[in-house]
Specification:
The structure is a homodimer of 489-residue chains. With 489 residues, chain A is α+β, with helices and mostly antiparallel strands. Chain A folds into two domains: 290 residues, Aminopeptidase (3-Layer(aba) Sandwich), CATH 3.40.630.10; 123 residues, 2-Layer Sandwich (Alpha-Beta Plaits). Chain A contains 14 helices and 18 strands. In chain A, strand 4 and strand 5 form a beta hairpin. The N terminus of chain A is likely disordered. At the A-B interface, strand 10, helix 7, helix 10, strand 11 and strand 12 of A face strand 10, helix 7, helix 10, strand 11 and strand 12 of B. Strand 11 of chain A pairs antiparallel with strand 11 of chain B, so a sheet runs across the interface.
Chain lengths: 489, 489
């Protein structure tokens, strides 16, 4: 990679040791196995958001459990929840002072719609040549099955190249099955198995690097709360000629509600929404500003022709360090072919709020209630219209790794060796159950992820760069040795 | 009926003659035939808005043509169009000075969705007892098959009770098959058959009375233009975590566009939209204000708990004499079960504008264009978002019958005899092809309609009051005699 356009991010970061030829050769020799086995797993449509796919999520858990047993884990369990099952595996080091590491990932995936926009069948993974090597296209390729699977190869490399018969750390894996549907039962699962999950550090493999030419480690993620608003007006659809102009139209009112979600500066209008946001320090803003940012390229990844957002913040600040409100879906009335001139009885919107450090998911519900009361008082919601917020899930909290944590240094070194480059620091705009992991297990959380910004996660044509999956395996192989040697308890 | 709460509407309206016992007895004796035959017709789902129902619309035309042949029309034709077929029938009077009357109706119907809200099967018509008699429930019962069919019974009554072997007027029927999808080819059809359709007056049977206790004749209808807006942002759906807050969200922008459709007073914001509106005169406002208006009851018919609309206008003025903009449907992003935290690539809305006397459908398209330019200039539509208006149809013009027209007096008398009550004047908020009829055929248009405000046209559980359909038949029987005796050419 080239770092011409990026100043060294921290003068205190020592140069990383060179890569280990044995580890690299082992990983390269397992490229075919990675593609074949991961493809087998990707063929299972383990969609957690759609209840009709529950059996597939179970099949996915079974597949992973079998694979981990074959990898040598002496203990593999499927942990049922009130929802969908997680997979747990454990392999003690045997060394008395080895630290205990818990790897987190998930085996459920997003739905594939709109299916018609896929260039390949979403559940028939396909290897395609790219200008950089090869990519594996399919739902879950990078989010998150690919990033769980690289640990299988990484652990085998670690064992084979160190000559060990057990990992250098006490290794535990918790691979949940409800991440893409809001980790509804994950906190409960952590509570139930708190003893088994006890660890010194959590390694989360569900994130990405800044870019192909800017390898980075994620140090924070946004939280999220989803809410649907059901807007109800007339008790049935009405003829828009006979009644149009004289009764409130729920779809119009819904549009006005959504239009009031942000003010003219792009700030979210929920009362008190920003009260507990931990503002970026000058140093943090400086660090983010030092990441190479090419707006033209960022827009290519964003498939957009222009940036847009909260006034006074850069794109990185907007997606990583600022809370947001977005419309994920909107519907109401007649949406079929031709026309149907009705005033619809109902209209609906699915909203999601991304949260940043300092904010809590539990604050969103009362804020939405207060906001709807405000909209009622100001007349945006008129008499004759009822608005009901619906929460399916509790939401997930935001998370930020302390920048000076020793486990973060181990991850940084391992990534630097695998990618042969200095490692920068980023955050992730997405959401994960990391807050629950940190809070319930009382352990620090670090991120080992190799996704790329153009991997199209949650969208049609999701893919994983095969070179990046292999580098992830290599970094994992280094990480167990590094953590054991520098960070025993 | 009681007129206690309604002052006589016009002191110049002479008392109507009493009803004709022979006509009434004939019509009453054909009640069972009306229910059975109309039900047979209603079982044909002649939905014109959905191309997959084209065969059903043809079946409906065939059914009607057969029925009119059996009624005695010497000439019945099915007139194909570039879209869906119309039915034409003609029965000359034989009297040299008989006026020529063209009856207009339509045999296509609205879609039945949302089907789950029907209490009966929409295509299996059912007679239900009500506190007033009986109603026939099914799609098209009143809009408009019921109102076409009552002419079959009315004409039979006219012939049987006058002893005539042909009608007292030269009777023509044009029953189109595309009214519910915007009468796309109706103007062309009228042009093509202008000679055959030549007439002295058009009688439109596709409207309603003011209420069960306030029988009225409609003197005007609103026009309509429909437009869909396609709002496009990112070229694919995006992860709302990775990109949320930094790119424009098409669903959010769509909401802001719709929110700007009206100002704070409920006025439509399209530039120049009101420029050519013929304002209500003081006398017209007085006449409308004299109609009995019971807001509680109106709200029951509107299935709403509150009125809402343009400031400074009454409910009648809002629905009959003021142009409107309504959302008929809105959609974009993920609308399935569970959640999918995306920024959608596209969002869409179906809008319809109702027009009043003075306005022309052709003015709406440039006004929408200017409006979108205004929204772009003010920043409501940001860079990165494209908005494309889509027009499937040319729209229909508004219509207003001159209040002093002699044919309107004949209709008023015939309705007064059939219902045994003074007849008031209303307008209709809906839209129809009357403007094209009047403009192309250069003939005055009057309305003979017996729909009720609670007939749920275009909505689930559409019904027709059987007593009102029979009264419509009776009024039609009188009308041919009245027109022939008072309004020969």
């Amino acid at each position: 990679m080239s770092t011409d356009d990026a100043a060294p991010q921290s003068s205190t970061q020592p140069p990383a040791p060179a890569f280990d030829p044995a580890v690299r050769a082992f990983v390269a020799g397992h490229r075919r196995q990675l593609v074949d086995e991961l493809s087998e797993w990707l063929r299972i449509p383990s969609i957690s958001a759609d209840p009709s796919y529950a059996d597939e999520v179970s099949r996915s858990a079974d597949w992973l459990a079998q694979r981990l047993l074959r990898a040598g884990f002496p203990s593999v369990e499927i942990w049922p929840t009130a929802g969908l099952p997680a997979v747990y595996a454990e392999w003690p080091s045997g060394d008395a002072d080895a630290p205990t590491v818990l790897v987190y990932g998930h085996h459920d995936v997003q739905p594939a719609d709109p299916v018609e926009l896929w260039e390949t069948a979403p559940w028939e993974p396909l290897v395609r040549a790219t200008e950089f090597g090869e990519e594996l296209v399919g739902r879950g390729a990078i989010d998150d099955k690919g990033q769980v699977y690289f640990h299988v190869v990484g652990l085998a490399a670690h064992l084979a190249t160190t000559g060990r018969t057990s990992p250098a750390v006490n290794l535990k894996l918790i691979i949940e099955g409800e991440e893409e549907s809001g980790s509804l039962h994950f906190a409960e699962l952590l509570e139930t198995h708190r003893e088994a999950l006890r660890c010194d550090v959590v390694v989360v493999s569900d994130t990405g690097v800044y870019g192909r030419d800017a390898i980075s480690v994620c140090v924070g993620m946004r939280g999220m709360v989803e809410v649907a608003l059901d807007v109800r007006g007339p008790s049935g659809d009405l003829h828009s000629g006979s009644f149009g102009g004289a009764v409130p139209n729920p779809a119009t009112v819904l549009a006005r509600i959504v239009a009031r979600l942000h003010d003219e500066n792009g700030h979210v209008t929920l009362p008190g929404f920003y009260d507990d946001v931990i503002a970026l320090t000058d140093r943090e803003r400086d660090l983010l500003a030092r990441l190479p940012y090419d707006e033209v390229r960022w827009l290519v990844d964003a498939q957009s022709s222009a940036t847009y957002g909260e006034k006074g913040f850069s794109t990185f600040e907007r997606i990583w360090a600022r809370p947001t409100a977005e419309v994920n879906g909107i519907w109401g009335g007649y949406t079929g072919p031709g026309g149907k001139t009705i005033i619809p009885s109902e209209a609906h919107v699915k909203l999601s709020f991304r949260l940043v450090a300092g904010q809590s998911p539990s604050q969103v519900r009362p804020a939405v209630t207060a906001w709807l009361e405000m909209l009622r008082a100001e007349g945006t919601i008129p008499d004759g219209i009822e608005v009901v917020p619906v929460y399916d899930k509790a939401g997930v909290g935001p998370f930020l790794t302390p920048l000076d944590h020793p486990a973060l240094e181990s991850v940084t070194r391992s990534m630097a060796r695998a990618f042969g480059t200095e490692v920068l620091y980023t955050r992730e705009g997405g959401s994960g159950p990391q807050a629950a992991l940190a809070a319930i297990l009382e352990a620090p959380v670090v991120f080992l992820g190799v996704g790329l910004p153009d991997d199209r996660i949650h969208a049609p044509n999701e893919k994983a760069d095969i070179e990046f999956l292999l580098a992830g395996a290599e970094a994992a192989a280094y990480l167990w040795t590094d953590l054991a040697s520098t960070w025993g308890r």
